[in-house]
Amino acid sequence: MSYTLEREDLADLARGAALLGTGGGGDPYIGRLLVEQALREGDGKITVLDPSDLRDDDLVIPTAQMGAPTVVVEKIPHGDEPVAALRALEERLGRRADATMPIECGGINSMIPLLVAARTGLPVVDADGMGRAFPELQMETFSVYGVPGSPLAIGGENGETVIIDTGADNKRMEWLARGVTIRLGGVAHIAEYAMSGAEVRRTAVPNTLTLGLRIGRALRTARERHGDFIEALAGALEGSGYDNIRVLFRGKVVDVERRTVGGFARGHATFAAFDGPERLELTFQNENLVARVDGEVRCVVPDLICVLEAETGEPITTEGLRYGQRAVVVGISTPELMRTPEALAVFGPRAFGLDVEFEPVERLVSP
Amino acid sequence: MSYTLEREDLADLARGAALLGTGGGGDPYIGRLLVEQALREGDGKITVLDPSDLRDDDLVIPTAQMGAPTVVVEKIPHGDEPVAALRALEERLGRRADATMPIECGGINSMIPLLVAARTGLPVVDADGMGRAFPELQMETFSVYGVPGSPLAIGGENGETVIIDTGADNKRMEWLARGVTIRLGGVAHIAEYAMSGAEVRRTAVPNTLTLGLRIGRALRTARERHGDFIEALAGALEGSGYDNIRVLFRGKVVDVERRTVGGFARGHATFAAFDGPERLELTFQNENLVARVDGEVRCVVPDLICVLEAETGEPITTEGLRYGQRAVVVGISTPELMRTPEALAVFGPRAFGLDVEFEPVERLVSP
């Protein structure tokens, strides 16, 4: 179902996107402010387009921010950059876009296509290429199922544009785009994986904007009513394909090690249990990759590992992790599209250099 | 005067270009082999076009290699890359080139446009944008006198292309292109500073290919006749605008410190005099930047500092410097076009972070 996104929806969507970002994707707060500003300046409406409402030959150009989340919180975009990237790619392709779309539904990248929509009047397709957030551009269902990411356009803060074309090699595209992003100061805005409406339906994870909105609403409502936010979250996920939720740990952050290296935020966080000697160790590269309790894997990428504030249920991103925070760590299963052998080859644990086999969270942890 | 370059000229041109490279620009030997191969495969002729023979509205697209000379000697191009860069830029501009041109007359970049010419049939303009070699892309007389370097096209070894557009900001263009070059393994091929025939005549250093050829011939002839190669060099430079030559030092290499950092070969070399306690210290960033004898500046960029083998007069590049080499270090004055305040602001000593004022070599050292 297509619908109009209201300004009042943005805070809920940002909250849900922070959860789907599994610690990464960049804090959606800044993105939300940019969208609100664009809505105030424009006609105040964003159309969310159901993938089934796309024509087969519509041109969809996804837009996004790329960079280390640790930099994103310090280097605020002025808002023209993703539109400049879109326009540069349109010029290269010799055709105007009929819609934009998120490449990932987690973090700030749920907001960037809304910003583009608010500024250009284009609709936003209710789907994405990660079903969560991942740190690298080849880690897209678009790529897994055969859509080339090239040509990719980058828009910089001073009006620079860069077009990268690596043919069908999306990993090489990521490598070069990351190099440019580092040189632009650690954050840049991109347009890539231009595709037809038919390709969206074949390769994208559907209705993830709406899922983010539903999750954000459920978490807020639970808080307002002093209800159980884990239960509310389970309710919001029901029937979405993200069907299993497991509490992995309840405890306090006792250590965070975080470095911005090679254009990524990499590191570890350790949590000590509230009521026992157990410890959970979280490893991340922008996003949370693996959660181990006393050395045993409890949840691993691409399943979602989400850290929520223990009192409020508010998602905490990796760059927001602080000593002393009280948190609940939950694992959430991802849709089957993201767990096929082809998908795991691109964004399973080994793609991140982890010496771990993928095992579904619903089998690793009992309900 | 326009003329046809013969295959037999290439060794002399490479030798002269190594001298004009002032230690950098990349060893022209590999470039020469690529040009010879292309000539064998094609129709065997390269037209060297005098700038005065260009029409005002001809489109000239300079082509070059960029990267650290220390990498260039290990990572041999297959020869398609600069043509791919040229074609990518033509496509972006929507117009075919009428000629190519060197961006620098020193080192391998005297050869890359010849390679493009041999492969495409385009003529090569007998001029360049540095009158020597410099390490960075904004250090061009083209840039000094108002030609934008953007859009710049990069061709990688796997057929990747990257287009960078930073408007009038040529320093930013260099910064981004260097980042991409590092990601491509430290060496890449580029097309940039597309300009009209009229702009070539206004901004380029004229007839530097021919000068390189003349220098290379003079050095070879002196060696064959057991003559004085310094005298021969002075003769070749006469009337070229590079009118003053000074012997700065005669001695042995006693120390070389060289690192490949930030995409450049940076370092120092120390020479001990044959006949006394004096030492010459050479500082380089790809190219030789400043020569000091016992702490006193004897020659500084943009004047040429050239290291020649003491016995043969063969130029030695920075990546070729070895302990124990016996050498003559000479300083050569550059044309007035390269010594104006505008030019010195872009490629004078302070542009390299050196705390030295420019002083012409003919005033620093007596004949």
From TrEMBL, chains A, B:
Domain S-Me-THD N-terminal: 8-165
Matches recorded under InterPro entries: S-Me-THD-like_C, S-Me-THD_C_sf, S-Me-THD_N, S-Me-THD_N_sf
SUPFAM superfamilies: CV3147-like
Gene3D superfamilies for this protein: CV3147-like, CV3147-like domain
Domain S-Me-THD-like C-terminal: 169-361
Pfam families to which the protein is assigned, alphabetical: S-Me-THD_C, S-Me-THD_N
Protein origin, superkingdom: Bacteria
UniProt protein name: DUF917 domain-containing protein
Species name: Thermobispora bispora (strain ATCC 19993 / DSM 43833 / CBS 139.67 / JCM 10125 / KCTC 9307 / NBRC 14880 / R51)
Source taxonomy: Bacteria, Bacillati, Actinomycetota, Actinomycetes, Streptosporangiales
